[in-house]
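Hi C.,

You asked whether I'd gotten around to modeling the 175-residue construct. I have! Everything is below, sequence then structure, no commentary in between.
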Amino acid sequence: MTRANSSEKLKRIVVTGLFSALIFVFTAYIHVPTGSGYTHAGDGLIYLSACILPMPYAVASGIIGGALADGLSGYPIWIPATVIIKALTAMFFSNKSDKIVTKRNLLAIIPSFIICVAGYSLYEGFVITKGLSASGIIAAFTQTPAYFVQIAASTVLYVAAGTALDKAGFKSRFK
């Protein structure tokens, strides 16, 4: 490995750690309790990391930040779902453009929302209620309005931060 490659890898690891910490803070400390969990804007930082970092690093930041938030804020039962859902969330976005906020990345919010609602609701309906019941799954899907708020707040954070970074030419300096 050359010195340049080593330096690039170190930079990616450091930025992954930074995004993991930001995701943790915006999830664990800046949230509103709802039903069986909480609503937060941390997903917006997952979107942002996935638009900046290569996929494996973006996935790692989403998993680390989200799982730490669940575990350290009193909701460790959600960690298995969070690991899968946040990894999938990051995979919808792309860092291939010179810009962070692109049409493709804005459209990625839609499948991200679907994965969030379906993933957490099914997890709650099957795992947390300890069995397969229609009433458990229906009850879990009643959290959907809270997920709308979560994705809306995350989208605002992503667009605001991404637009500011785009105006500053962040991606051209980061690469």
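If it helps when you're writing up: The longest helix spans residues 3-28.

Thanks,
B.
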